[in-house]
Amino acid sequence: MITVPTSGPGRRALRRQTRRAALACLVALALSAGVAVAALASGRYATPLPELWPALTGGGSPGLRFVLFELRLPRIGTALVVGAALGAAGALFQSASRNPLGSPDIVGFTVGAATGALVVLLVLRDDRLTPAVGAVLGGAAVAGAALLLGGTGQRLILVGIGLSALLTSVNAYLLTRAEVTDAQNAAVWLVGSLNGSGHHLPLLLGALAVLLPPAVLVARGLRLVENGGDKALSLGVPVRRQRLTATALAVALTAVGVAGAGPVGFVALAAPHLARRLTRVAAPLVTTSAALGAALLLAADQLAQRLVPGQQLPVGAVTGVLGGGYLALVLAWTWRGRSW
Amino acid sequence: MSVATPTGLRRPRLLAAGLLACALALLASIVASLVVGALPLTPGTVLRELVAQGDSEASLVVWEVRLPRTAIAICVGAALALAGVLMQALTRNPLADPGLLGVNAGAAAAVVVGILAGVTGQRGHLMLALLGAGVAAGLVTVVGGTRGPGTAEDGRLVLAGAAVGACLTGVVAGVTLLNQTAFDRYRFWAVGSLADQPLSALLTAAPALLAGLAVTVAVIRPLDVLRFGDDSGAALGVSPGHTRALALAATTLLCGGATAVAGPIGFLGLAVPHAARAICGPRLGWVVAYSSLLGPILLVTADVLGRLLARPGEIEVAIVMGAIGAPVFIALVRARRIPRP
User: Fold this and answer.
1) What is the pTM for the complete model shown?
2) 3-state class of B243 per DSSP?
3) Of A61, A141, A206, B132, whose CB has the highest number of CB atoms within 10 Å?
């Protein structure tokens, strides 16, 4: 176990960090709750707020209860769980790779997951297998290859970009070999979507509950190592093993996200960035990132449902556009030396 | 103006002989491209049909299918290779590549939005691809910046390209998933194929490609001078700003034109300049000359390979290129010291 500095400025700084992190967490949770209430109340079957509470507690019309319990709540729940898993995974990944851009997307997990799902949907065409299984296997394989070939730091990211470029063309190839309807269904899966989700919510929630506590602990250890630098190493803290554990947990959390909604991009990258902005702590914080990831994905899904009237965009298209734009802005600011 | 460089020691005569060898290799790959396919032909048959066009099946295959395809491969290969040379020289980043820098995604987004808006016809798609490529190239340059400390060292532009590319890919995903017609056209465009493209597609793109080539030739000298830094360039009367703007314009014309004809083909623009520099050293004039031959050799060979590997069908050339190019890219990234352009 790592010892926390017991006196002096180190401890005070740490306590201040913790306080800010807790505050940011509360802000993110409030945000999620607000969006969730808005999502519950709106939709094609609009529900005035005063009718919401009675319906949720067992009153109201059966029709309204059906809409709330069968349609809206499962979708909102899945969005929150998937967003939290991706946010936490991103924070862990950035800690472990010591790179603010290390994320499951950038190292090729997302594209690999897409390839895995496509192989299940278009090549194997086996009903016993769900695309989620293929996606998790494919994503983990690519992330593993990127880690193996790239090590840590900038090189990992560049190797990931190379692998992504290769698999993108493989995915395009698989899509041309299928019927257009099959291909378009598969393409929706590739982008990441919450349409028709919610069947596996208890399973996803369970996985998140199992993975999140160790993730928080490992990240905390890593953060202390970063702060203490070589001292921690000389004290015999198993830094390497901790990084490995963190990466494995990050991959597992990403897998939860992918299983729930497909390879939704950029939540894992953006949530820790926002968390750092809010807390002004150098290393990304897992809990805050998870809370922000949940809020982000839920908001993006609401946006995706409303952006084009009469049609449902997959949420991944929205997070891709917003996340890519956000990343471009962050990069531009950082490279121009502004604080952000 | 002659600048003394270590490679100035390499004999021009030797390098010229190397160019001749490359030309011969290109000729061999062209012959292979005309001979290999679903209907195998002998070189003798092909030659006979080329000299005197008959009305046999072989004649149809040679004149209507394989000649246009080979011509397109040569032009696209040269254009992408030169675009890669310019981009790497411009950004002084050894990993710069039109595909990695978001230019393809820009062209794709523009074309897809065009399909949705009802733009049809080759000319319309070409204009859109050029526009999209230009906007994406500009965005990536603005985000990544081509000056300042660290520009060349840390793959900054590749990251900027990944960010801008992801954003534009999101647009493409949104549009194609809302509109099945757009999706169906896009999925075939996105694999970067040389098959089924008529010669008229190349002719439509020709003005853009030729203009890009002309600007490239004009910008070789000033860019070569800037290799030694902006200050020495300015001292020698070269304006870094103008030179970069011209080089960027040429890159956009070449990439946009090539992408409009053959769809997005990655990695070629990355790998060819490296191979060229390995042969002839960093002098830009020679790199351009070698790349303009090596690019077509690589693309024509990859296309032939795609036909051989999946007989009697074929694998699209961009996929073959990805399978060759991704390992090269990863090896470059892993190499501790990457030779600077």
Assistant:
1) 0.78
2) helix
3) B132
